[in-house]
Amino acid sequence: MFVRIDNLLGKKGQIDYKGIDMDDIVIGTQVYPHGAPSYCILETEQTTFPDNPDITVLTEQEYNDLSEQMRAEIEANQPVDQVQILTSQVETLQAEDKKNKQTNAKMLLALARSGITV
After folding, report:
1. How far apart are CA 21 and CA 2, in angstroms?
2. How many other β-carbons are positioned within 10 Å of the β-carbon of residue 65?
3. Is residue 117 pLDDT above 70, yes or no?
4. Distance between CA atoms of 31 and 65, rounded to whole angstroms?
5. Average pLDDT of the chain?
């Protein structure tokens, strides 16, 4: 079953799964929103739940849609990988340098063939 658990944080900041058995949660299905985890969605093998307004049963489609939306938001808010940016810039500069060297070599060859000395 797929569920959404609201008011996820307890009074002391601990995660409160509202009586859902942790052993029944399908590993890798828990998704928390970006920022403070006020709720989560997950799949569980548990079929009955405590009577709690913070637990909402979802269809598989609702879970998938919400999961996709939450994961996209998380990804959009990831810090930019500075190493990847710098590596890309170095590769661009190296390609430009190679091109400039080739152009300079062609120009020097043309000058040499024309008889002009530098």
Report:
1. 13
2. 12
3. no
4. 12
5. 88
The pLDDT tens digits of the residues spanning 7-16 come to: 998 888 888 9
Nearest to 1 by CA among 84, 78, 57, 72: 57
The tokens describing 19, both together, are 């009586």
Residues paired with residue 57 on neighbouring β-strands, in sequence order: 3
Distance of CA 32 to the CA centre of its chain: 12
State how far the Cα of 32 lies from the Cα of 71, in Å rounded to an integer: 9
Q: Please tell me whether the overall predicted TM-score, pTM, comes out greater than 0.90 for this model.
A: no
pLDDT tens, position by position, 103-113: 888 888 888 88
- Per DSSP, the three-state class of 31 is strand
C-alpha of 111 from chain center = 54
Interacting residues of 46 by C-beta distance below 8 A, sequence separation 6+? 1, 20, 21, 24
Amino acid at 65: D
Cα–Cα dist 40/74, whole Å: 13
